[in-house]
Every structure is written in C-alpha cells, then in structure tokens.
Specification:
Layout lengths: L3 H4 L4 E6 L2 E11 L2 E4 L12 E4 L15 E12 L4 E6 L4 H4 L14 E6 L7 E9 L14 E3 L11 E4 L5 E7 L6 E5 H14 L3 E2 L19 E2 L1 H9 L16 H9 L2 E2 L2
Antiparallel strand pairs: 1-2, 1-4, 2-3, 2-13, 3-6, 4-5, 5-6, 7-8, 7-10, 8-9, 9-12, 10-11, 11-12, 14-15
Length: 269
C-alpha cells in the first residue's frame, strides 16, 4: 500500500448498465469527467453508471470494499477512429477518488507498463508488462488510427482501462482490444490527447498531465488549483476514517494524512 501503482487504482471505475458490468473507465479530469473506449458507448450512455472502489480489501481471501457509484449524465465526445469517449458523471467523484495523470509523450518499445482494470466484470485487477510495438494501426480493431501492443493480458471488461507508464506512473494509453488479438492492445495517449483535451477544457474539466502537473497529492480537494490549503483541510475532515483523495498512505484518512497535509501547506512544488 502507498505505492504509485496502488494509489493509481483510485480513479479507476467499473462501468455498469442493465444490472451488469461491461467496461472500465477512469477519471481524466476534475470534477467528474471519465474516459473509456468509444466501443463501450457507441453514441449512448442510457442507464450507465460508474462504480468506484470495487476491489477487495486483501490480495487473497478478502471482502469487497464499500463501493461508490455515480450516474453518467452526459456523453461529451466520442472518437471511433481512436476508440475513446468522454463521459460526464453526476457530482464530484474526483474530490474523493482523484484524477489519473496523463502521459502524452510518444510510447517507446520496451517501456514498462501496468494496467488497472475490471476484466471479465470482476473486482479491480492489475496486470503488468512492457510495450511490445508502437505505431501499428488497426491490427486488433480495424479502422483504429494508432495502436500499441503490450504483453499485459487484456480481457473483456478491461476495455477503456488506463495503461500506466511504469516509470512516470501516468496514463500512456487506454486498453481497447485483447484476446484473440493476444495479449493486449491499446490506443496511445499521444494520439488521443490532442483531440480529447479541447473537449475536456470546453466542458470545464481540470486534467493533469505529466508535463504540466508535478506530483502534489496533498492538493486533495479535486479542484486541481495547485494549492494546499483550507479547502483541502475541509476535504480531509469530510473523508475522515474512510477512503478518499486525502488518503495519502492508503490506510484510510486519519492523523498521518492530516500531518502530511500540514507539512505541505501552501503552493504545490
């Protein structure tokens, strides 16, 4: 617990519709914008919701944690050629679950990656590997403008999940296709981001990228204002004894998190 990989599980959600799980999404911008695959939306979000914290409290023999579900209220944008979609959720889930940081640099063969997903409609899972190929369009899903190959296994339900760079711990691609196109394929953020960002900003979203947002977990109120202050303190108090974006050590919001916030009071580095 407390590792970047473990912390990055927080903004990842399971998409639900009709009583079942069908894809994965993740918070790409505060306060409430998530990204998933276009083939998960196909022009409609009727009856769709996003469930956060659907994970076990232990690696083996654990119980499912208390989940937190938000209805999808607006399909902001879709791009079938890059297989991504932007959805607005109700409320402010980023204030509790945080925002995944985007790495819009070109991916490189051999780079370590890991994927956090809800494969097969199950509780949250984790797979790690490396990038095996880049700039090979439409190998797994014909018509896709750009794909990267990864040797982390992708399964049904993992579509839309973030693929993190193992060094920067920022999202370098989104999973969009797997077996029988084994082991897994993603669409790189270097292609997605130039198209997605204007739509995110137009919708009032506040994203974070590796190139513009230095790590500042203590700015935990979900606003992305780059200041650790009274609003973050109030957010921490509101999350006390539970999960939340102010849980810096992964053990539930408490006195250690409070002391960490005070020690980093002021402008983010």
């Amino acid at each position: 617990m407390g590792t970047p990989e473990y912390d990055n599980r927080r903004p990842v959600a399971q998409l639900l519709a009709g009583g079942g799980a069908f894809c994965t999404a993740w918070i790409v911008a505060a306060p409430n914008i998530v990204m998933t695959n276009q083939h998960c939306t196909v022009g409609s979000i009727a009856g769709v919701s996003a469930r956060f914290n659907a994970e076990c409290d232990a690696c083996e023999g654990g119980s499912i944690k208390t989940t937190d579900t938000y209805a999808a209220v607006e399909l902001l944008y879709e791009n079938a050629a890059l297989d991504f979609a932007l959805i607005r959720l109700e409320g402010n889930p980023a204030a509790i679950w945080g925002v995944a940081t985007v790495d819009d640099a070109d991916p490189v063969v051999g780079e370590a990656i890991y994927e956090i997903h809800h494969g097969e409609g199950l509780v949250k899972g984790y797979d790690a590997g490396r990038i095996t190929s880049v700039d090979i369009p439409g190998i797994c899903l014909p018509g896709t403008l750009a794909e990267i190959g990864v040797n982390a296994v992708a399964t049904g339900g993992a579509s839309g999940s973030p693929i993190f760079n193992g060094k920067t711990h920022c999202v370098t691609a989104i999973c969009h296709c797997g077996p029988p196109c084994a082991p897994g394929w993603g669409v790189p953020m270097s292609f997605i981001w130039p198209d997605a960002l204007p739509h995110i900003l137009a919708a009032g979203g506040v994203p974070a990228t590796c190139s513009t947002a230095p790590p500042c977990p203590w700015d935990c109120d979900g606003s992305g204002d780059g200041v650790v202050g009274i609003v973050d303190f109030l957010a921490l108090l509101g999350q006390w004894d539970g999960p939340g974006s102010c849980d810096f050590d992964g053990g539930g919001v408490g006195i250690v998190d409070f002391l960490n916030l005070l020690a980093n009071w002021g402008d983010c580095p």
